[in-house]
Amino acid sequence: MSRLTAVARAIVDRVRAAAPAVPLDVEIHVPIGPTPAFFTMLHYFAAGLRLNGGSLAGSRIVATVGADCEPEDLSERLPWTRKYGIEWRWLDRDLYRRHIYYATAVERFRHPFRARMVMLLDVDTFVTGEFRPVVESCSRGRALAGLIAHVSPFSGLGMPTPLWWSRLFSTAGLPPPRLVAEHTGWGTMSHEPADRYCPPYFNLGALIAPAAIMTQIGSIIYAEMAHVDSVVEIVYKCQLALALAIQRLGLSWLPLAMRYNFPNREDLAARYTDDLADVRLFHYLRQDQVERTRDFASPQHVASLLARDDLNAVNLEMARRLAPIHEAVLADPS
User: Fold this and answer.
1) What is the DSSP string of 138-191?
2) How large a percentage of the chain has pLDDT more than 70?
3) pTM higher than the cut 0.90
């Protein structure tokens, strides 16, 4: 047994023996496609939540499945999902054909919710710590919380970012937005002064709000995406549509600290050192060293990732945090 494996197993045993935290009334929604890599990512997400989630550890996990195919009983196909009580909600096939994976992401706003609080998380994330403070803040303030996106979605599109924001909001029938939030990657990923500020414009990797607010957003999110499409063809249409919905609905919002949606980027790790030391959610969205389709094709591929000696500092820290989750996954029914 390697030293890393021995340490990981000791952590798993210690966490399982700890007294359970008082649970929060939260349900968690993730979007996936019906592929082996998505199933593996979901497995590690579920295991990490149960192992590290504290007051969220027992939360219901709802997987929205989007694909141009007929639904199937994934609980029969994937025995480990029964241990975690994964609830499946297949996207309407015609809806997927019209909006592809964008619908998989935003349909989560439109589900019937049973918990008082809702978290929308990307499946290429894993939980490493407690979320109670931010969940309680959103509950008290009836607010939507998210990480301000790293950079402007309009950078390099031929017009200054503030003009893009004005055009988008005007086309949607809204007044010009107040650019009151600083992009979390400004000064590292971007240095253009015009790209520094934005309205509440969130990365979709982690969103937290009362269920009623999620439902409000869901009632208009497709219309807001249509407004985005009428202005610009862009991969960030869901995030931009959410920015429109926040203003149209007059929602209160809170910016998440980087620790609640930490990307595996070296430059951001060097800037947000305190958040990395207290990370609560790792988001392996960068594809340079860690490629999720390849490295999460199966638990065996994850084992190979954890054994690598060429990882940069932030990916090495991510691997260290992932190792105990990997051990928990290996102990699950296949």
Assistant:
1) HHHHTEEEEEEPSS-TTTTSSS-HHHHHHHHHHHTT-PPPP--EE-TTBTTTB-
2) 94
3) yes
